[in-house]
Design brief:
Blueprint lengths: L1 H28 L21 H21 L3 H24 L18 H20 L4 H6 L2 H13 L3 H10 L11 H9 L2 H6 L10 E5 L2 E8 L3 E8 L7 E6 L8 H4 L5 E3 L5
Antiparallel strand pairs: 1-2, 2-3, 3-4, 4-5
């Protein structure tokens, strides 16, 4: 019986660690308001300049622990997650006592709700699962594939019941922020731009692949590229859709918008990317 439960707990631990690591990396890489990272998890207990490195370090540890449970058949690889989740349980309990206004940051900025008994209970449940896996000695992909669905389902239901992030996800889906308030990293907008027909139409006249200037106004991200003939091409990428509209306009050295017959094509183009 214990070996069956341990085999079911292993994939739950691996997926939880992997999701936590990836979510933290995504949060660090995403545009956030100043000091936002310092309001997540134990980073609030350290200077703000260490919040980003701490998030990177925690995500790396989680990804390494997940990989170790899958590929390393050694007691250390099985007991390290026990220590990690036990320490996380204590940190969350201490965080709730000392800073009840901050989120645990367990899954990045999705976990921004104040730490409560549900988050602490989830960490404790994961600690118990990890201890059972380590005590029984379950490791590797064969154990994951041999796990029975009912036991896995029971463990998942338990964790979901202890996850305040579910409430946050539902709230975000029901009350989606307007496009002017949604974060959009410049790199992602630039990727949408380079996948658009407007980019292909003007790429041959551009002197460089990197913008000379960029800025955001409400739902639009603007990019300026130097072009032939001492001109500039200004692209505008809409930030409100999965397949955002892209517009382009050519501006001459005198500041005038080039007419179609000045450039041999339309000076204003609108399109959507081939792939989002």
């Amino acid at each position: 019986m214990l070996s069956t439960i341990a085999a079911a707990a292993l994939p739950i631990l691996v997926v939880t660690l992997a999701l936590g690591g990836v979510a933290k990396l995504a949060t660090v890489g995403r545009e956030t308001s100043p000091g936002a990272l310092a309001r997540l998890g134990p980073a609030v207990l350290m200077p703000e300049r260490f919040a980003r490195p701490a998030m990177y370090a925690c995500s790396l540890v989680e990804l390494v622990l997940a990989a170790g449970l899958l590929v390393v058949d050694h007691p250390i690889a099985r007991w390290l997650p026990v220590a990690f989740f036990a320490m996380a349980t204590y940190v969350l309990w201490d965080l709730r006592r000392r800073r009840p206004d901050v989120g645990c940051g367990c899954f990045g900025d999705v976990s921004d709700a104040p730490v409560g008994l549900r988050s602490i209970g989830r960490a404790a449940a994961l600690t118990a699962m990890a201890a059972l896996v380590a005590a029984v000695g379950v490791t590797g992909l064969p154990a994951v594939t041999a796990a029975t669905a009912p036991w896995i389902g029971g463990g998942v239901v338990l964790l979901l019941a202890c996850s305040p992030e579910i409430d946050e996800v539902v709230s975000r889906l029901r009350h989606r922020a307007p496009c002017e308030q949604r974060p959009m990293p410049p790199g992602r907008a630039l990727s949408h731009l380079r996948a658009s027909a407007a980019w292909r139409a003007h790429a041959g006249s551009l002197l460089t692949d990197e913008p000379s200037d960029m800025w955001r106004e409400l739902c639009w991200r603007f990019f300026v590229f130097s072009a032939q003939g001492d001109a500039e091409v200004v692209f505008a990428v809409h930030l409100g859709d999965r397949r955002p509209a892209v517009r382009a306009v050519v501006v001459g050295a005198d500041g005038r918008v080039a007419a179609p017959d000045d450039r041999g094509d339309a000076s204003l183009r609108e399109s959507t990317p081939v792939s989002a």
